[in-house]
C-alpha cells in the first residue's frame, strides 16, 4: 500500500534496498554451496558449516575479506589447542576446564588489547577451541577426528562465502573511506563555523568527541585496504596521511575558537579581524564557492594580520596573533584534507598536497593492558562457572549450554558492557524459535532432496540475511541464524525429534541467560571505570611529554590523544550528570599537549635564560598532570604554573632573537588560555 510523503509523492510502504538484498543473496548462494559440499563429502555436522557462513559474512567487502583470513587462522589455532589439551587432561576434567578457561581468557585479553581486525583471530581461537572441546568432554577418545571435522566444516564455509561475495558482491572499502572522510570534513566545517562565530551549542563536546572517533575509525578501515584491491598500499598511505591531517584539524579549530572567546571577553574584535572571521565562516559554510584560490587568500590575510600585531607585546595583541596563526594552520590542514579525499578513489584535482610517502605505515592506537586483562579475566571466570554448574548438576545438555555460552561470551567480550547486546540476543533467539519449529515439524518433512531443501530455506535465509545487512538491525541476525540453523540440526538424514529440539533450544537459551547473568555480575560496572582509565592514561602521557628527560614523538602522541578522545566519546553517555568524568576536557588536554611539543622543540634554539624559563613551565606542567593522574580527577592547575608561563612569555618577548609569532611563544599563549581561562590578562613585568 503506498503512503503519501510530505512532498506529495507516493512511496511504497515497504521498499527493498538492492544493495542489502544483493548481500543477502550472496550469502544465500554461499550457504547453498556449503551445504552441497557438506552433504556430498558426508561431513558429520553440516549445520556447523552453514552457521559459519553467516557468522563470517560481512556487508562491506573491505571489512569482510581480512576477517576471513584471521578467522581461518583462529580456527586452526583453536583446533591445535584442543588437540593438545583434551587428550592429555581427559582424566582431570577440572584441570582441563581451568586450562580451557584460561586459554579463552588469554585470547580475549589479546583481542581487547589489539583493537584491529586482527582481534578476530584471537576471538576465533578462543571460541573455536571452546565449542570443539566442551560438547565432547564426556567422550574425548575421538577428539582428534571431531576436531578435524569441525575445521573442515568451517573451512568449507569460509571458502564458499569468500568466493560468493567476491563474485556477486565486489564492493570496496574505498568508497566507504571517502564517504566517511567527506562526512567528517562537512561536520568539522559546520562545527568550526559555529565555534568561530561564538554560537556554541549544548552538544559541542559530544560533536568534538564524535569527530575524534571518526578519525580513529578511518585508521581501522585503512587496515582492510590490503585485502581490498591491488593498489591498496598507495591508498593506505593516502588514508593514513588523511588521518594525520584530520587529527590536526580538530585541535587547531578548537584552539582558534578558544582564543576568539577570550578576545571577545576583553573587548569587541577590531574590524579587520572581525571581517576575516566572517569570511572564514562564510567559506566554511559553503557560501563562498572556492576551488582553492579563496582559501589561499584567507590564509594570506591571516598571516598579514598576524604580522601587523607582531609589534605589540600586550596580551590582546598576542591573542590576535595566536588566533590568526591557528586559523591559517586550520585552513591549510583542511585544504590538504580535502585534496587527499579527492585522491582516494578518484583522480586528484588541483595542486598536490604533501606526498603521503612520508607518512608512517600505521596510526597509533591507545592500548590499556588493565582493561584487556579485566575482559580476559571476566571471560575465563564466566566459562569456569558455566562448566562448574554443568558438572555439579550432571545436566546431559550442559555441554551444549557451555558451548553456546562460550560462543556468546567471546563474541561480545571486547565491549565494555555486553549485557544490553546479550539481552537483545536473547530476544532475537526466542523470536526465532517458532520459525524453526515451523520448518522442522511442518515444512521439512515434506521436502525431498537437496534441491528442494535449498529452495525451501530461501525465504528464511534471505530474510535473515537482509536483516544482517541493515546496520540498525544487524545485531539481531546472529542469534536468529544460530537458533534457526542449530534448531533444525542439519544432518545427513532428516530428523524431527521434538525432545531433541526442546533440549537444544533450552541449551541455547540457557547459554544466553547464563552469559547475561555473569556479564551483569562482572562487566556492567566496567564502562565508567574504563573511561577513567583512558583519561588517566592520557594524563600519564602528558606528564611524560612535558618531562624533558623523556624522549617524545610528536605525531605518535597526537595520534594516541585523538584515539583516546574517540574512545571516551561513547562512554561519556553513561556517566551520571554529576560525575567527575564530565569535568575532564580531552580536547583541552589535546591542545595542551600540542602546545608542549613546540616548547620542547624550542629548548635547543633559544637563549639560556629563556631555556630556563621554558624548562620551568614544562616541569610545572609535568607535575600538574602527575597530580591529576594520581588523584584520578582534574586537579586545578597551581598558581606557580601561571607564574612560570607569564615569566616565560615575558622572557621571550624581551629576547631580540624571538618574534611574537615564534611557535614556542604561541604555545605558551595557548597553554595560558587552556589552563587559566579566567585569569587576568597577561601583563609584562617589564612594563609595570
From TrEMBL:
Entry membrane topology: Multi-pass membrane protein
Keywords: Cell membrane, Membrane, Transmembrane, Transmembrane helix, Transport
Chief location of this protein within or outside the cell: membrane
Record's keyword annotation contains Membrane: yes
Pfam families, A to Z: FUSC
InterPro entries with a match to the protein in the record: PHBA_efflux_AaeB/fusaric-R
GO molecular function terms noted in the UniProt entry: transmembrane transporter activity
One cellular component (GO) term of this entry: plasma membrane
Keyword rRNA processing: no
Spans through the membrane: 21-41, 47-64, 69-89, 95-112, 371-392, 426-444, 450-467, 474-492, 498-522
Top-level lineage group: Bacteria
Compartments reported by the entry: Cell membrane
Stated name of the protein: FUSC family protein
Organismal lineage: Bacteria, Pseudomonadati, Pseudomonadota, Alphaproteobacteria, Sphingomonadales
Amino acid at each position: 500500500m503506498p503512503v503519501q510523503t510530505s512532498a506529495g509523492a507516493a512511496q511504497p510502504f515497504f521498499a527493498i534496498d538492492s544493495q542489502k538484498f544483493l548481500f543477502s543473496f550472496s550469502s544465500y548462494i554461499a550457504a547453498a554451496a556449503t551445504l552441497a559440499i557438506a552433504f556430498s563429502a558426508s561431513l558429520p555436522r553440516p549445520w556447523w558449516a552453514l552457521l559459519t557462513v553467516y557468522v563470517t559474512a560481512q556487508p562491506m567487502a573491505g571489512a569482510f575479506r581480512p576477517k576471513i583470513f584471521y578467522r581461518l587462522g583462529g580456527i586452526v589455532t583453536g583446533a591445535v589447542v584442543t588437540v593438545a589439551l583434551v587428550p592429555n587432561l581427559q582424566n582431570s576434567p577440572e584441570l582441563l576446564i581451568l586450562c580451557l578457561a584460561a586459554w579463552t581468557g588469554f585470547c580475549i585479553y589479546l583481542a581487547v588489547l589489539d583493537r584491529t581486525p586482527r582481534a578476530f583471530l584471537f576471538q576465533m581461537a578462543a571460541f573455536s577451541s571452546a565449542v570443539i572441546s566442551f560438547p565432547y568432554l564426556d567422550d574425548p577418545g575421538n577428539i582428534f577426528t571431531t576436531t578435524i571435522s569441525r575445521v573442515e566444516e568451517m573451512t568449507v564455509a569460509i571458502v564458499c562465502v569468500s568466493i560468493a561475495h567476491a563474485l556477486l558482491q565486489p564492493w570496496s572499502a574505498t568508497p566507504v573511506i571517502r564517504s566517511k572522510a567527506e562526512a567528517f570534513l562537512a561536520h568539522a566545517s559546520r562545527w568550526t563555523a559555529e565555534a568561530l562565530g561564538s554560537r556554541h551549542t549544548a552538544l559541542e563536546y559530544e560533536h568534538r568527541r564524535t569527530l575524534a572517533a571518526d578519525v580513529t575509525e578511518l585508521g581501522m578501515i585503512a587496515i582492510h585496504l590490503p585485502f581490498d584491491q591491488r593498489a591498496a598500499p598507495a591508498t593506505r598511505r593516502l588514508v593514513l596521511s588523511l588521518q594525520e591531517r584530520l587529527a590536526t584539524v580538530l585541535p587547531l579549530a578548537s584552539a582558534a575558537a578558544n582564543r576568539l572567546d577570550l578576545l571577545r571577553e576583553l573587548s569587541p574584535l577590531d574590524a579587520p579581524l572581525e571581517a576575516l572571521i566572517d569570511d572564514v565562516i562564510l567559506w566554511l559554510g559553503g557560501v563562498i564557492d572556492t576551488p582553492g584560490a579563496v582559501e589561499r587568500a584567507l590564509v594570506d590575510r591571516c598571516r598579514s594580520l598576524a604580522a601587523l600585531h607582531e609589534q605589540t607585546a600586550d596580551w590582546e595583541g598576542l591573542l590576535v596573533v595566536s588566533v590568526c596563526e591557528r586559523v591559517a594552520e586550520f585552513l591549510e590542514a583542511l585544504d590538504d584534507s580535502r585534496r587527499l579525499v579527492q585522491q582516494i578513489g578518484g583522480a586528484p584535482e588541483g595542486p598536490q598536497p604533501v606526498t603521503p610517502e612520508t607518512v608512517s605505515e600505521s596510526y597509533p592506537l591507545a592500548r590499556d593492558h588493565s582493561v584487556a586483562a579485566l575482559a580476559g579475566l571476566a571471560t575465563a571466570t564466566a566459562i569456569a562457572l558455566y562448566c562448574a554448574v554443568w558438572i555439579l548438576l550432571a545436566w546431559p545438555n550442559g555441554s551444549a549450554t557451555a558451548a553456546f555460552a562460550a560462543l556468546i561470551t567471546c563474541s561480545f567480550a571486547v565491549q565494555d558492557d555486553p549485557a544490553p547486546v546479550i539481552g537483545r540476543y536473547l530476544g532475537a533467539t526466542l523470536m526465532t524459535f517458532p520459525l524453526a519449529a515451523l520448518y522442522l515439524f511442518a515444512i521439512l518433512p515434506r521436502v525431498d532432496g537437496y534441491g528442494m531443501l535449498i529452495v525451501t530455506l530461501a525465504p528464511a535465509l534471505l530474510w535473515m540475511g537482509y536483516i544482517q545487512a541493515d546496520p540498525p538491525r544487524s545485531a539481531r541476525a546472529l542469534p536468529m541464524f544460530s537458533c534457526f540453523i542449530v534448531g533444525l540440526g542439519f544432518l545427513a538424514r532428516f530428523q524431527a525429534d521434538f525432545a531433541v529440539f526442546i533440549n537444544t533450544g533450552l541449551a541455547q537459551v540457557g547459554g544466553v541467560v547464563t552469559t547475561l547473568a555473569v556479564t551483569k555480575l562482572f562487566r556492567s560496572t566496567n564502562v565508567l571505570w574504563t573511561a577513567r582509565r583512558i583519561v588517566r592514561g592520557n594524563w600519564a602521557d602528558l606528564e611524560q611529554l612535558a618531562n624533558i628527560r623523556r624522549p617524545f614523538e610528536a605525531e605518535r602522541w597526537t595520534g594516541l590523544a585523538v584515539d583516546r578522545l574517540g574512545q571516551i566519546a561513547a562512554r561519556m553517555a553513561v556517566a551520571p550528570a554529576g560525575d567527575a568524568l564530565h569535568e575532564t576536557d580531552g580536547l583541552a588536554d589535546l591542545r595542551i599537549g600540542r602546545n608542549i611539543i613546540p616548547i620542547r622543540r624550542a629548548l635547543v634554539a633559544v637563549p639560556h635564560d629563556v631555556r630556563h624559563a621554558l624548562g620551568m613551565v614544562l616541569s610545572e606542567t609535568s607535575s600538574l598532570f602527575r597530580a591529576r593522574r594520581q588523584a584520578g580527577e582534574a586537579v586545578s592547575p597551581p598558581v606557580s604554573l601561571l607564574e612560570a608561563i607569564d615569566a616565560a612569555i615575558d622572557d621571550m618577548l624581551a629576547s631580540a632573537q624571538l618574534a611574537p609569532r615564534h611557535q614556542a611563544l604561541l604555545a605558551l599563549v595557548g597553554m595560558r588560555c587552556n589552563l587559566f581561562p579566567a585569569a587576568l590578562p597577561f601583563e609584562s613585568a617589564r612594563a609595570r
